[in-house]
Design goal:
This protein is of the alpha/beta class. The protein has one domain: 3-Layer(aba) Sandwich (Rossmann fold). The protein has a five-stranded parallel β-sheet, with helices on both faces. β3, α4 and β4 form a beta-alpha-beta unit. The radius of gyration is 15 Å and the shape is globular. The N terminus is likely disordered.
Length: about 140
């Protein structure tokens, strides 16, 4: 079967990353050692990066104002406290913030979460999801 050159493949999709248009992206959880990689991926897409570790060392009382300040939330749900997980979900829903929950904690899972924003079509273009959360499996 010949490949149609007019149809982009998966590699072509990755070549043009989603532009975050100076939106503030809160990353909750994830690997401490990967934090600089998360930051670089957000900034490459013209976003502003903030991070909360999900209650491991950072105080949970800091999470609520960070959620309020963020435009988008990406949460490594397998690497945060139960209280932080429920706070992220309920606050994003109440405030109408796009929230992507990823099970994995690595960079590949994080990139999948960012990619899921692009896959939501017109909602991702305006990033106007109503606090909906997408759960992506980790690698």
């Amino acid at each position: 079967m010949r490949k149609d050159p007019s149809r982009p493949n998966d590699k072509d999709k990755d070549a043009a990353p989603l532009s975050l248009g100076d939106r503030c992206v809160l990353c909750v959880g994830g690997l401490t050692g990967a934090r600089n990689h998360y930051r670089a991926e957000i900034e490459t897409r013209s976003g502003r990066f903030i991070h909360h570790d999900g209650g491991r060392e950072d105080n949970l009382h800091r999470l609520a104002p960070m959620l309020a300040a963020a435009d988008i939330v990406i949460c490594a749900s397998g690497n945060i406290s139960h209280n932080a997980y429920h706070l992220v979900k309920s606050t994003c829903k109440k405030l109408g913030k796009p929230c992507v929950l990823v099970k994995g904690t690595g960079i590949a899972s994080f990139l999948d979460g960012l990619g899921s924003l692009a896959q939501t079509g017109s909602q991702a273009a305006g990033l106007s999801a109503r606090g909906d959360s997408l759960l992506r499996r980790g690698r």
